[in-house]
């Protein structure tokens, strides 16, 4: 018998009632970190497409719907679409026990066990091989920058801290982000780094290969980029500085410069947006606040104070022009290698519709995101270090101003409105994904509502 005997993790007919593939996935999805609908039970799960990527590995697009209400004729059905790569075998090795999803008892896969193939190094290797050879598999298109050569045989590892998506690092040379929640259209995490690199901006790892689907609707599925092996993310660096009682103002100043560089290049790479005007922005922010307060009761007492931040924008059409932005900028989205800051993860706030994330918006949204992040970091330290955060915020704005030619601190009303909007988003995000963290944005909500900043 081999040393690691294959494990029949469940036997048909013995352990469970009949299990369809959709039924198994419906039970498995809500436990995944990247699953967006944690606050609502999954009513239905439809398999939208199945493609055999290579023997023993299926590529699936599934739609999880939360209402169970059929869509009106002629409209797309409600619900979120997710990308899954499933290993399908008769037996699953014990080393893949954590990836195990279940054994299918009905339908074409009856009798077979399915598991999350991204956790299987062999499948991860084959996925890279597929990307190294551009072409088509069913509705899936694999494409690559012909000027970059990706060597064969790089050892894969799945990043532990899965976030909104799943990322595989290959031999510390490349990182493949497999998008989990799929929306029709080009994903800005392919579009923006590609455009920035084409403009000669060195602040982003440029896409070297990617894959997309043509059906049921065209959408980006994954992007391979160079991996920065010696980089640390801004969040880890900020926490280290706090733990060492050290300042972070030099890094924050340089980060402000890097952010401005990226904004300036994005402004040059894309047609300038007309924007929607501050009044429209204020209305949208107020609507987001109402929706968040509906979902998170703790927000409700602060809603009147928060609304004043948005109301202050009305009749005040000032501020930098709208342009393409990062959309979800925080310390976890920036990497520092040596003295250089790199910006990653241009997807925008994952819960927003893709069209909104790809629209021109105020660069103040990104600045506010980063300012909030210094506050998040400072609140990880006991006792809380508000002065540390304040100095970082000042330094970041000064760095930004030195490059961009305008100073975010001169836009107090805009800054307060965007910070408030970001804190509201964070409350909703934490309530859904990390309830223990809720006090962090709630402290800012209280400050912004009661003291106005
Ligand atoms: N090019 C890169 N080089 C080094 N590490 C990276 C790179 N891109 C991403 N990472 C690491 O992977 C993590 C997840 O990447 P990210 O794009 O933020 O994914 P998600 O959309 O899942 O949040 C980052 O926090 C960072 O630590
Ligand atoms: O998964 P993403 O990185 O795209 O972003 C989402 O998750 C982030 C947490 O991982 C969340 O960021 C919030 O927590 C960070 C600390 O973990 C902090 O640096 C950010 O300022 C704070 O917003 C982000 O909001 C969410 O979109």
UniProtKB/TrEMBL annotation:
Pfam families: Mak_N_cap (PF18085). Keywords: ATP-binding, Carbohydrate metabolism, Glycogen biosynthesis, Glycogen metabolism, Kinase, Nucleotide-binding, Transferase. It catalyses: D-maltose + ATP = alpha-maltose 1-phosphate + ADP + H(+). It comes from the Bacteria. Its EC number is 2.7.1.175. SUPFAM superfamilies: Protein kinase-like (PK-like). Residues 28-120 form the Maltokinase N-terminal cap domain. Pathway: Glycan biosynthesis; glycogen biosynthesis. InterPro entries: Kinase-like_dom_sf, Mak_N_cap. Belongs to the aminoglycoside phosphotransferase family. Monomer. This is Maltokinase. It comes from Streptomyces prunicolor.
């Amino acid at each position: 018998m081999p040393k690691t005997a294959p494990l029949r993790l469940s036997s048909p007919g013995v352990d469970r009632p009949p299990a369809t593939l959709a039924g198994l996935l419906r039970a498995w999805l809500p436990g995944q970190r990247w699953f967006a609908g944690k606050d609502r039970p999954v009513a239905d799960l439809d398999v939208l497409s199945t493609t055999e990527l290579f023997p023993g590995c299926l590529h699936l697009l599934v739609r999880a719907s939360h209402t169970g209400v059929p869509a009106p004729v002629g409209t797309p059905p409600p619900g979120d679409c997710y990308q899954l790569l499933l290993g399908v075998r008769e037996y699953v090795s014990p080393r893949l026990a954590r990836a195990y999803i279940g054994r299918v008892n009905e339908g074409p896969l009856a009798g077979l066990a399915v598991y999350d193939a991204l956790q299987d190094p062999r499948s991860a290797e084959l996925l890279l091989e597929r990307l190294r050879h551009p072409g088509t598999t069913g509705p899936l298109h694999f494409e690559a920058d012909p000027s970059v050569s990706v060597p064969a045989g790089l050892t894969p590892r799945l990043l532990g801290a899965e976030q909104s998506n799943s990322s595989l690092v290959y031999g510390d040379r490349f990182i493949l982000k497999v998008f989990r929640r799929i929306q029709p259209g080009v994903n800005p995490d392919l579009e923006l780094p590609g455009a920035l690199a084409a403009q000669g901006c060195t602040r982003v790892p440029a896409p070297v290969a990617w894959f997309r689907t043509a059906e049921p609707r065209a959408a980006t599925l994954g992007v391979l980029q160079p991996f920065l092996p010696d980089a640390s993310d801004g969040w880890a660096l900020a926490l280290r500085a706090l733990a060492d009682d050290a300042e972070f103002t030099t890094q924050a100043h340089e980060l402000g410069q890097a952010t401005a560089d990226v904004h300036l290049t994005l402004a040059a790479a894309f047609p300038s947006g007309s924007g929607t005007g501050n009044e429209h922005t204020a209305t949208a922010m107020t609507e987001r606040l109402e929706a968040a307060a509906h979902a998170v009761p703790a927000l409700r007492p602060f809603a009147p104070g928060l609304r004043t931040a948005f109301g202050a924008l009305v009749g005040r059409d000032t501020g930098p022009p709208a342009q393409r932005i990062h959309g979800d900028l925080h310390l976890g989205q920036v990497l520092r290698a040596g003295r250089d800051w790199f910006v990653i993860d241009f997807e925008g706030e994952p819960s927003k519709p893709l069209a909104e994330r790809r629209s021109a918006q105020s660069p103040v949204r990104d600045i506010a995101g980063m300012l909030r992040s210094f506050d998040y970091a400072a609140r990880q330290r006991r006792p809380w270090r508000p002065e540390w955060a304040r100095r970082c915020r000042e330094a970041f704005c000064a760095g930004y101003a030195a490059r961009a030619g305008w100073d975010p601190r001169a836009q107090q009303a805009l800054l307060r409105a965007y910070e408030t909007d970001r804190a509201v988003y964070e409350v909703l995000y934490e309530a859904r994904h990390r309830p223990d963290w809720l006090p962090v944005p709630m402290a800012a909500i209280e400050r912004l509502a009661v003291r106005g900043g």
